[in-house]
Write a structure and sequence with these properties.
The protein is an alpha/beta fold. It contains 10 helices and 16 strands. The C terminus is likely disordered. Bound molecules: UDP-4-deoxy-4-formamido-beta-L-arabinopyranose (WQD).
């Protein structure tokens, strides 16, 4: 009994892999290494280099490794890139899941945990977004994730699959620094990059209807996200289910609060430049976590300080040189 983990060489995937291996699960990784790093996959874990779009490779991998379940993370996840290259995103994310489902059905593999996203909700005025909230994604990326959820549910109904979709909120931080995100385009890595280059971080809008005018997001430590996947693997194995849950902390932090936390952690001046709003940014996106706690018996354990400290450690470890980070116009921090 083994699990195929697609995208297991990625930033999030490698944390999920470590959690699954630590749980004693047998795992084989499929990754096209388009953004993943081979070094993140331990030598004792088989790594199949290839794409989920390769149906024959998928079927052979499922068959040859005695796979009974799949954790599918191998996909594209940049909102702005999905706007510029929607067809690439539909092919990679939607045709990828279609190909995976066809291979699973052909090989009699019936358990699936799917990496979905809070992006399926689009813009919401709710203080906390629950799984039965309207799903009106406002980016091609979000639309690919929602279409995948639909395909998976239809396949589960038709072929008796046991499935769970996990709607990730804003994933940050790192476990061991060798798994740190490299070259990310979300808030944390962009702020760290600005600071490491002696630039002020940029805040996209401070005129939102929030407590300090900047956007509110539900940041979740990647190790908490990884443990949610292990709980989901157990869930789809122990019973035939068709469930979709949020994976977040249920707590919102504003962008300015994140900058304050980064300043407190790094000792650097994080005074931002305020720029105009960024198109497509909802004012607030915070998870309702009751269903994930009830169904998975799981809850996030790391707070914002731990997320920032681990993310900073990871950013420092993955800097091309070990030179100290220059403070804004002043001395450097260690
Ligand atoms: C967070 C907030 C920005 C950078 C992402 C992606 C996707 C999905 C959810 C998985 C926003 C502000 C950012 C900066 C800023 N994850 N910001 N200055 O857009 O909430 O969603 O996570 O599916 O990865 O959709 O994340 O980190 O880009 O932005 O002010 O330099 O930080 O405006 O309010 P986002 P983000």
């Amino acid at each position: 009994m083994s699990w195929l983990l697609t995208g297991g060489a990625g930033y999030i995937g490698s944390h999920v892999l470590r959690a699954m291996v630590d749980e004693g699960l047998q795992v084989v990784v499929l990754d096209d290494l388009s953004s993943g790093l081979e070094s993140r996959v331990p030598n004792h874990v088989p790594l199949i280099t290839g794409s989920v779009l390769d149906g024959e490779l998928l079927r052979a991998t499922l068959r040859n490794h005695g796979v009974t379940g799949v954790v599918h993370l191998g996909a594209k996840k940049s909102v702005p890139v999905s706007v510029e290259q929607p067809l690439h995103y539909y092919r990679e994310n939607v045709v990828g899941v279609l190909t995976l489902l066809e291979a699973m059905v052909a090989e009699g593999v019936s358990n699936l945990v799917f990496s979905s996203s809070a992006a399926v909700y689009g813009t919401s005025d709710a203080a906390q977004v629950a799984e039965d909230s309207p799903t009106l994604p406002d980016s091609p990326y979000g639309r690919t994730k929602l279409m995948c959820e639909w395909m998976i549910r239809d396949a589960a109904a038709a072929f008796g699959l046991s499935i769970m979709s996990l709607r990730y909120f804003n994933v940050v931080g790192c476990g061991d620094t060798d798994l740190a995100e490299v070259g990310g385009t979300n808030l944390f890595p962009l702020v760290f990059r600005a600071l490491s280059e002696g630039r002020q971080p940029v805040v996209f809008g401070d005129d939102y209807p929030t407590r300090d005018g900047s956007c509110v997001r539900d940041y979740i430590h990647v190790e908490d996200l990884a443990s949610a996947h292990v709980a989901a693997v157990r869930r789809v194995t122990d019973a035939r289910v068709d469930e979709t849950v949020n994976v977040g902390c249920g707590v919102g932090h504003t962008v300015l609060e994140v900058l304050d936390a980064i300043g407190a952690t790094t000792g650097l001046d994080t005074t931002p430049v305020i720029a105009p709003r960024r198109a497509g940014d909802p004012a607030s996106m915070v998870a309702a976590t009751g269903l994930s706690e009830e169904i998975l018996g799981w809850r996030a354990r790391h707070g914002l300080t731990a997320m920032v400290e681990s993310a900073w450690r990871g950013a420092q470890a993955s800097r091309p040189d070990s030179s100290p980070v220059p403070a804004l116009g002043g001395s450097s921090a260690s």
